[in-house]
Amino acid sequence: MRKLIVTQWTSLDGISDARSMNKWWLPFDSPGRQKYIQDTINNCEIMLYGRKTYEMLHPYWSSFKDNEQGVADHLNNCKKYVVSANLTEARWANTTILGKDYIKEIVKIKREDGGYILVQGSASLIKPLLEAGQVDELKLLINPSIVGDGVKLFSNEVNCNLAFLDFKQFEKNVILVTYKPTKN
To answer: One biological-process term from Gene Ontology (predicted)?
Structure first.
């Protein structure tokens, strides 16, 4: 049975807005953080995206041919699912579009044997996946910055309790906290 792992990059105050990454993400880059991200991507078997993240990442990563940043080959070749009610064509290789019954499809995919499914970005998927009990691990890569404004990771009410699994500190005081969602 596959695990579904959600990993999110955020500021200390919960901002995960790609438009302001120059404030809360870029200043805290480090070799340790880069290695963690590379390992997380390269060790997954399937990527699961929301439409916005998919459309943001596809043009960038699909243009690379020489395994740029140590993950381009894997991102371009691994199996990908994108949740969208609007997309009619998936232009990134090995992508399947999941429609409105995506939770049922994810349940089926998780029942298969194989490596883990990774949700990275795609904040709009987190709440429904948590509420459906499909998230096996929630990994928060927290950058020591308070932004104050922007799209928050949990901007809608989410009712989910978490059990602590692990903690790691990277250079520049970036921390990774791993939780397992528990039944409420």
So the answer is: riboflavin biosynthetic process
Q: What residues pair up with 50 in beta bridges, in sequence order?
A: 83
- In order of start, what are the domains of the chain with their CATH numbers? 4-182 (3.40.430.10)
Strands (E), 12-154: 46-50, 79-83, 95-98, 117-120, 137-143
Structure tokens at 167: 């903690």
**Which residues does 24 contact at the CB level (< 8 Å), separation at least 6?**
10, 11, 15, 143, 145, 147
Distance CA(134)–CA(109), nearest Å, equals 11
Using only the alpha carbons of the chain, give its radius of gyration. Answer: 16
pLDDT tens digits, 14-50: 999 889 999 999 999 999 999 999 999 999 999 999 9
Structure tokens at 54: 């998919």
pLDDT one-digit tens code per residue, 46-101: 999 999 999 999 999 999 988 988 999 999 999 999 999 999 999 999 999 999 99
Q: In what order do the strands lie in the sheet with 95-98?
A: 95-98, 79-83, 46-50, 117-120, 4-11, 137-143, 175-182, 161-169
